[in-house]
From TrEMBL:
<dbReference type="GO" id="GO:0005886">
    <property type="term" value="C:plasma membrane"/>
</dbReference>
<dbReference type="GO" id="GO:0005773">
    <property type="term" value="C:vacuole"/>
</dbReference>
<keyword id="KW-0914">Notch signaling pathway</keyword>
<feature type="transmembrane region" description="Helical">
    <location>
        <begin position="635"/>
        <end position="654"/>
    </location>
</feature>
<dbReference type="GO" id="GO:0012505">
    <property type="term" value="C:endomembrane system"/>
</dbReference>
<dbReference type="Pfam" id="PF18266">
    <property type="entry name" value="Ncstrn_small"/>
</dbReference>
<dbReference type="GO" id="GO:0030659">
    <property type="term" value="C:cytoplasmic vesicle membrane"/>
</dbReference>
<dbReference type="GO" id="GO:0016485">
    <property type="term" value="P:protein processing"/>
</dbReference>
<protein>
    <recommendedName>
        <fullName>Nicastrin</fullName>
    </recommendedName>
</protein>
<dbReference type="InterPro" id="IPR041084">
    <property type="entry name" value="Ncstrn_small"/>
</dbReference>
<feature type="domain" description="Nicastrin small lobe">
    <location>
        <begin position="35"/>
        <end position="190"/>
    </location>
</feature>
<dbReference type="Pfam" id="PF05450">
    <property type="entry name" value="Nicastrin"/>
</dbReference>
<dbReference type="GO" id="GO:0099503">
    <property type="term" value="C:secretory vesicle"/>
</dbReference>
<keyword id="KW-0325">Glycoprotein</keyword>
<keyword id="KW-1015">Disulfide bond</keyword>
<keyword id="KW-0472">Membrane</keyword>
<keyword id="KW-1133">Transmembrane helix</keyword>
């Protein structure tokens, strides 16, 4: 085991050289895991971390709460590494671990609307408990590593190792060495708070050419488009009124980059996409007196990053619109779990105390109510005694009293039992396929969930048509369930499907894959944002007969009006049975706007007004299992190893008698240890 090469090891502490083949025999890496990582805001750190070189413990499989107690207090070989079933991974299971202090009922982005000045009775998230099932565990700080095992076969491997080595032959006796152990490594570079880590990074970048950055702000882009083209570099006239239709795109869970967000985000943004398509296709839509803006906000999970930035940009005149241009605001909250097809129309009781705002809100509710017959959605009013549920609209109301409505499937508490958890999957919103379908057949199969969300899209498109001043009957406006079902399949089950493949640019292949996740992240634009852009372009744009050069550089040709439109060179569908594609050019009004919290723009890292969430950097994240020997055996091995080392040193330094047969002979060298794969994060550009 010891072979003397101490120099090239990357770790801060020299470790004995362990030859590769030996390492492979001893360790079994776990290849499908997701860690809980550290996130920071202005005042706190949340998440998990291991010690610098990883935490090791004897594996104990916990099947009931007594097992946990045993490992924590009675087990003869502490520390233990606990393997916990998902259903025990609850507050009660965690309380057993003792260390974290629980206090928060359930976290919500509270820098929303309600404060001491605006509706003090609803401030601090009083007024309504939106997620009573939430444990708040995602917002706690754990001083030990926690990993999610994503592959049942790997879990079985661990359990087998546990059964073979850690379960004593006689119940109650202490198991015999060697024991099966696990090492989890997820050391985080940042600590304490965003203020601390950003100050450190900014000091470093002032004084060092090679600054060591320890945390990055969560950031991405909002995706927006308009019914009628808008000059991206110009300004909409102050007296013009537009209707804004919005929803959120991102979600979150306890584990890094595991954020399926089916009910929390996907159901809603898919409905909005369907509405955008239906409205664009409606006869006369392009001639409506008022324009309609569709906005998909990123980072809303982390104290409304996307919406607060858009409001900020509108105030700073960095967006073609100003806040006063917004005549009405329609937002889709969670909409996939309707009881009896009912959607609730939430409004803000505080701004409605103003007569003129209240009458505008009433008009808005009227239009919605008139659009509902025949759409399949019934609408209900929860009354004015209730505050708005968590929503992007709150960030707009903070800046200006805009008449608006948030539509959701819940009146009070969420119907979503898995809000911001790893279980908010396609199953949670009832997506089921008949058995035996191929992936391509699933893509086209219209599920009941898709039918229901298409109804929401239909209602929304009709309401937007009327709000924008359309006087024609709206019965012909319909969202397409086929499109909705493909979108759900693509954003929940597999984005690597034939439709999405035809929508992306040729260099974007890396964004497609199974089980897409919707975490906002620090490297942008994320897969979800890029896909959303491509899909919205397909649904609201048109295909033009342009050459690749013209399409990729439309600025050269004034006739293309590149200020009004975006041009995308897409790789197109497969050409019949061959493997080649028919590429083409798509023109649309789909654009990105930054979703980086204004707190970072203003360098106010202790901001209470804007989101300050950052993600810590790390070097290595890995998990592996192996057998450990008893302390005595380890000591024996160590002493033997030392002995061998001494002997070999002795051999090396005793002047050697030249061997006439092998004049160049040298002492055999052991192979250099390979530097383990460094899985550090992609730095943002
Ligand atoms: C930071 O997050 C913690 C945990 O969720 C929360 O208690 C605290 O209020 C947050 N701080 C700010 C300034 O938002
Ligand atoms: C687990 O192992 C079985 C049998 O070896 C195999 O058929 C199955 O595909 C594996 N499952 C996964 C998720 O790898
Ligand atoms: C992970 O992958 C490595 C290399 O492919 C393999 O040897 C190892 O058995 C895998 N781990 C598990 C737990 O299956
Ligand atoms: C867009 O706005 C810019 C700046 O106001 C202006 O120069 C340009 O002519 C406008 N383009 C169109 C097509 O209206
Ligand atoms: C009501 O709101 C309008 C604009 O939204 C404002 O001009 C007016 O002053 C407000 N009225 C009161 C009584 O605050
Ligand atoms: C983007 O998608 C690719 C392909 O599925 C995946 O490897 C990558 O991890 C994804 N990126 C993020 C941030 O989820
Ligand atoms: C996507 O699917 C194609 C076949 O349709 C396959 O060749 C490719 O490897 C897949 N990409 C990913 C990231 O799974
Ligand atoms: C959108 O995708 C569909 C299906 O692949 C295709 O038929 C249509 O031409 C596309 N539309 C645009 C504008 O690219
Ligand atoms: C597209 O344009 C090219 C040259 O500009 C022309 O030859 C071709 O016929 C056009 N195709 C269609 C479908 O209009
Ligand atoms: C594609 O292949 C199928 C079966 O292999 C064949 O029936 C069909 O005619 C082919 N289509 C084209 C356009 O070549």
């Amino acid at each position: 085991l010891f072979c003397g090469s101490w120099g090239s090891f990357p770790a801060p502490f020299p470790r004995p050289c362990v030859g590769n083949s030996v390492e492979r025999k001893i360790y079994i890496p776990l290849n499908h895991t997701a860690p809980c990582v550290r996130l920071l805001n202005a005042t706190h750190q949340i998440g998990c971390q291991s010690s610098l070189s990883g935490d090791t413990g004897v594996i104990h499989v916990v099947e009931k709460e007594e097992d946990l107690e045993w490992a924590l207090s009675k087990g003869p070989h502490p520390p233990y590494m606990i393997l916990l079933n998902g259903n025990l991974f609850s507050r009660s299971g965690f309380l057993g671990l003792g260390t974290p202090k629980f206090g928060i009922k359930s976290h919500f982005p509270c820098p929303g609307l309600y404060s001491e000045e605006h509706g003090p009775e609803f401030a601090h998230c009083n007024g309504s408990v939106w997620n009573p099932l939430g444990s708040g565990v995602s917002y706690e700080d754990f001083p030990f590593p926690i990993f999610l095992l994503q592959d049942a076969n790997e879990t079985e491997t661990i359990k087998e190792c546990f059964r073979a080595h850690n379960v004593p032959a006689v119940p109650g006796a202490a198991p015999q060495f060697p024991l099966c152990a696990m090492q989890l490594q997820s050391h985080m570079h940042a600590a304490a708070s965003t203020v601390t880590c950003m100050r450190r990074s900014s000091l470093q970048s002032t004084f060092s050419i090679n600054p060591e950055i320890v945390c990055d702000p969560l950031l991405d882009y909002n995706v927006w488009s308009s019914l009628q083209p808008i000059n991206a570099s110009g300004k909409v006239e102050p007296e013009k009124r537009l209707i804004l239709a919005a929803t959120r795109v991102d979600s979150h869970s306890f584990f890094w980059n595991v954020a399926p967000g089916a009910e929390a985000a996907v159901g809603s943004f898919v409905s909005l996409l369907a509405a955008a398509q239906a409205l664009q296709a409606a006869p006369g839509a392009l001639g409506l007196p008022q324009n309609v803006l569709f906005v998909f906000f990123q980072g809303e999970t982390f104290d409304y990053i996307g919406s607060s930035r858009l409001v900020f940009d509108m105030e700073q005149e960095k967006f073609p619109l100003r806040l006063e241009n917004i005549g009405a605001f329609l937002e889709l909250g969670q909409v996939s779990l309707r009881n009896d097809s009912v959607l609730w129309m939430h409004t803000d009781p505080i701004s409605r105390r103003n007569q003129s705002v209240d009458s505008q809100v009433r008009d808005l509710l009227d239009v919605l109510n008139r659009s509902s017959p025949g759409s399949g959605v019934s609408l209900a009013d929860p009354g004015v005694s209730q505050p708005l549920p968590p929503s992007s609209f709150q960030r707009f109301l903070r800046a200006r009293s805009i008449p608006g409505v948030v539509l959701s499937d819940h009146r009070g508490q969420f119907h979503n039992r898995y809000f911001q958890s790893i279980y908010d999957t396609a199953e949670n919103i009832g997506m089921h396929y008949p058995e035996g379908l191929t992936p391509e057949e699933q893509l086209e199969f219209v599920t009941e969930t898709a039918e229901a969300l298409a109804q929401v899209g239909t209602l929304l498109a009709r309401a937007l048509f009327s709000l924008a001043g359309g006087t024609d009957p709206t019965e012909s406006i319909r969202a397409d369930p086929k499109t909705v079902t493909r979108l759900l399949y693509g954003f929940l089950l597999n984005s690597n499907n034939s439709w999405f493949q035809s929508l992306i640019k040729p260099d974007q292949k890396g964004i497609l894959g199974p089980f897409p996740q919707h975490y906002v992240a620090v490297a942008s634009p994320t897969n979800t944002t890029q896909l959303l852009q491509a899909v919205l372009g397909n649904l609201t744009g048109i295909r033009l007969n342009l050459s690749r050069e013209e399409c990729q550089d439309p600025g050269k040709n004034p006739a293309l009006q590149s200020e009004l439109y975006e041009y995308w060179w897409v790789q197109g569908p497969l050409d019949g049975n061959s493997t080649s594609r028919i590429p083409g050019c798509v023109r649309s009004g789909v654009r990105l706007s930054p979703a980086l919290s204004p707190a970072f723009e203003l360098r106010r890292w202790d901001s209470r007004e804007f989101s300050t969430w950052t993600e810590s950097r790390w070097k290595d994240i890995r998990a592996r299992i192996f057998l450990v020997a008893s302390r005595e055996l380890e000591l024996l091995t160590l002493s033997l190893g030392m002995l061998v080392l001494l002997l070999s040193l002795l051999c090396t330094f005793i002047p050697r008698i030249p061997n006439p047969q092998f004049p160049n002979s040298q002492t055999p060298k052991c192979p250099n240890p390979q530097i383990p794969n460094s899985q550090s994060q992609i730095p943002k550009s």
